[in-house]
Amino acid sequence: MKSDDALASSQRFKEDFESESFLWRTSALKGEATWERSNISAGDGSRSWNIPSSSKENHHTLELTEPLQISGSKPVLRFFHQYTTETTYDGGVVEVSSMKASPGALFPIR
What we know:
Blueprint: E1 24-30, E2 36-38, E3 48-50, E4 59-64
Antiparallel strand pairs: 1-4, 2-3
């Protein structure tokens, strides 16, 4: 398949979780199980972030310590994730904000 070279994109950020960097902040809002680096379901490398299974309710966040600046006429955020959840009970959310939007405004992920 041939594609138009003018449609190329540039990668601004990639994280394989291999280094012991401090790019991520974890918060345990409710529950005892919390985010940990593991080798379960790694994407490009051998490491990933995981919350161990728990019989109790948990609510945790994993966020970048510094915001990503995504710009361009048609900006795109792509990410890999894998999950095992209980139907209608567990879930996850990716929050995206804009400096131009009102504080707390969320944008749909398509």
